[in-house]
Each structure stands twice: as C-alpha cells, then as structure tokens.
Amino acid sequence: KNPKVEPRFFMFFEHWGMRISAWYMTNAYAALVLRSTISKEIIKEFNKHKDIKIAYPSQNLYLGNLNQNHFEQHHENMHFHARNKD
Fold this sequence. Notes:
Elements: E1 8-14, E2 17-23, H1 31-47, E3 62-63, H2 68-74, E4 81-82
Parallel strand pairs: 3-4
Antiparallel strand pairs: 1-2
C-alpha cells in the first residue's frame, strides 16, 4: 500500500453517454464500500443541478395478441405495448 498514490479520475464520452472512471488504491476488503461511497457522492452532486438528467438504458417490447391484464397482474414493474395488426 503506497499512501503517496493519488486517486485518478477520467471522463470519456461514449455513444450512449459519459463514462466516469475512478482509479484508486485500497485494500480488497474496503473496495466495494469505497466504490459505493464514491457513487453516492457523484449522484448527490448531480442531484444538486436541475439541468443534469440521468437517462438509464431502456427498451420497449411490442407483442401482438397480448393479454395485457395477465402481464399487468404478474409483472407490475414491466410495461408492455400491444400493437394491433390493423
């Protein structure tokens, strides 16, 4: 463990958004806690700015002849779009 190693932060534009990468030295037991703490701090800073919107990947699923009631009862967190064959 080298206490003189400073954390490094990098930002990359990707086709779907921006990737923020943080490189730091820590022991294996603290890695997940530190990663979670850094993520929380980034989100907290983003939330301070009303003009920053975080878009999460999503997709629509279109099914023909869909029994909408069955899926709504069993998959309340999923949204299905039925497309008529007209």
